[in-house]
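== Fold encoding ==
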Amino acid sequence: MAARSDAKTEVGSGAFVWAVLVFFAGWLAFSWPWLSGAVTIPWDAKAHFLPQLQFMAASFARGQSPFWNPYVFAGSPQIADPQSLIFSPPMLLLALADSAPGGWALDIAVLLSVLASGIGVLLLFREQGWHPAGGLIAALAFSFGAAMAWRLQHVNQVLSLAYLPFALLLLRRALLGQSLTYGLAAGIVAGFIVASRDQVALLETYLLAGYVLAHWLSSERWAAAARASVKPLLAGAIGGAAVALAPVALTLLLAELSNRPEIDYIGAGRGSLHPALLITAVIPHLFGAAGDMAEYWGPPSFAWSGTGLFIAQNVGQLYIGAVPVLMLVIAAARGLLWHREIRFFTIALIVTLLYALGWYTPAFRVFYELLPGVSFYRRPADAVFLIGGLAALLAGYVVHCAFSWQLPPPRLWQRCLEAAVPLSALLAGLALALGFGRMETAAGAIILSATCFLVGAAAIATALWLGPIRPLAALVLLGTTGAADLAVNNGPNGATGLPPSVAGVLEPDTDNATIALLKRKLAETGSDTRRDRVELAGLGFHWPNASITHRLEQTLGYNPVRLRLYAAATGAQDTVGLPEQRAFVPLFPSYRSLMADLLGLRFIATGVPIESIDKSLRPGDLTLIARTADGYVYENPRALPRVMLVPNAMAADFDGLLTTGQWPSFDPIRTVLLEAAQATAERPPGKARIVAYLNSEVVIEAESPAGGYVVLNDVWFPWWRAEVNGRPAPLLRANVIFRAVEVPPGRHRVRMTFRPLSGALAELLDRR
């Protein structure tokens, strides 16, 4: 760890160039189905992340702030959302370059990030003085192995892992050279990791901290090494804080107000990696993870009853290629994994595997209780990203040893063990298939894996023979074998590559009839007092956030993190792609309810007749206005205006209202409910109109002969600020979840502005 390999590989720069070229060719082969437009990265990449990117890009193009999103959940603090992509450099650059990015643009950005990750691994190996052939195998396995390939749709986590090689390289230089410059650079890259605010980023943060600790402990004079690293680490802390402090603080504050301030141990454990999935390191297609859900038979499918797990079928895929796996087996048999220069990564891999296994070992309970941040996440199996990355680095190191003649000759028992491990895994897969009666579907997967391992073993043997006489040929042979293997086994599948038409509704220029109808109807009903909302329910997985793409202000959406208050008042769930995911609550018991009217919910598009979603509806409650290829579109004629000048106020128990759903007797046009309000004499009505409505600013002109309350039916959030005629005014929480500002008699201009940084700071100072 503390110095370059003692047996620094004597290879010219030509070998490194060839390694880069072979890696690029491998990337091109792996990525071509997406690059060509034949398939698109589906599911979360499109349903969630693409609309976030489009919102940011459109906001920049219109000269607006992307910090508040008015198009889902009646308004959401986008800047604090860990999945908003605002703090992701690749996505930020794309948003600045393209005002209306489509699905292909997002795919390209993700794949370029994957490419960059592999280049980072190659540079890291070069920095270590390790053979480029090792860097090539490590780069291929890192970029196209395990979760990096099988979970491309989880954009944030892919980006988090892509930063890791660069963070390690810069941190190494900072520690060895006691460099403030590299320390600062390492801190900035680590800051981008932390700012991703996902579980992969959390684990990488602990990994980098462990790397520093290992650097100290591996030095002969550890105390001196620790003292020497103070300045570069301080520079790194400054760089990291500059990048990550604000987003992390905002997200932590949002978490306290969200539907998931933390995940309990059982909830997190349901996202554990089942031990049986370890076999996918050798037989990736054994359980049918690449196919339809109905055909999948691995845990936690119905074939494995009683696991208690809740993870997708692709989460536990561990395959990084036959060549890397065989090299790891060789390393384990011959004791290479405990070499001083790689020992840290071996320990890190073991710890990460224990973390991923979740409740299947006692270790995760310790991690959950002792490590800050773990309780925020619900799926320890996300550690598969890091397992693949660490295993790739270890496999690459073994290739380096082989190509630099540091691989010890095997004894007979070691050779037998090296052959027995993959053979045992193949036999275990065969036994599982026979035991579960799945031989018909699993036989092909077992044969494919056996073939890949035979080819991989032949490639290793040939490369080792060629190495002394034709080193570049050996490098190319091993690299192309590994690249072809991963392109075949980890290429597009049902989780990562579907026809672009599956997410066609999320293209900015879509000609979808339902979207076109909603846009036309909203244009007809809009005015300076009305901004009617829509709801997209039960139309399919990729629909809930289409409101962001097409700038339709919606009551629901797709996001695992929502405001707890709003969810309690409206029944908003993670998503509403299926009809049964539309939940109702006491305060929003039906589309025929006061809360629906207050939200201005005018148009509802559903994939099934709405009576099958809301069984309390009676004939005439809603009007069917259209039947499209996607479903049904209804109108709620009772939807209230977005802004009102309400003359009177009444005190109400908002917590009680959320529990009982029993509104007091009042007319929302004439009376507003406040948490604390003094009784007022009956006052004549006034009027209000919206002068400007931007993402993070709303300007309203109000006129009232006797004063009253400007009520804006947008979600109340503590980081919004109000002014009346340029002077600060209290922003009141009205009618349980909305905003109100009291105004005196006369004509006034009310401005509401979203100020997340000053709002968050004020919130923190109030706690002192």
